[in-house]
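Supplementary notes for students who missed Thursday's class. We covered one full example, reproduced here. Read the sequence, then the structure, then the short commentary at the end.
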Amino acid sequence: MNNNSRALLKRIRTSVFTAAAILVAGAIGFAAPAAASTPDGETPANEGVCDELMGATPGLYGLCVAYCEAQDLDTVDKQPPNTKILDNYRKKMKAGDPDMPCIQAPCPCWSSEELAVITSDGIAASCLRNSGRIQLIDSAPATRYAFADTESTRCAYVDINTVPPKVRNQTITAEEAQSCMAALTQACDALGL
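Structure (token representation):
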């Protein structure tokens, strides 16, 4: 084999190895996002639940991200594995700082099972929304609805399909009103209303 052939063979071998390396790197780059996942399937886990703390007391935002977003605790149904981060958050809190955003009080007007009954068939008659208010209505076979108002801090639940009919209408705290509003917003969004 002459020197030109050896040089050509060396260039071909180098090109093949370079192409193989690029393919492997590309495959890893495409597979990594598919393999990375959080409990709710959102990648990355930073879903913005802590964004409201960016201008709050220094340190609260980082503790919130560690507690809520890194552990994916943005729903009422999930329980945190330990409360050490939450304890540190509450020690740093100053007057006017919000409590940990991913911790929500349950809505006192309905249970999660009662709200699920309204949406269980995947069809609700309507979802009425305006500033600070939301109402989810299902009228099959008879009327059921849930209502939340963050301005007047009220909530209501009515189900006339039961005997006796369930009727709850009460004044609640601002935190509870936010929780009721969040639950109804999530239910309406899930139904595409």
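Commentary. The radius of gyration is 26 Å. The longest strand covers residues 133-138. If anything here is unclear, bring it to office hours.
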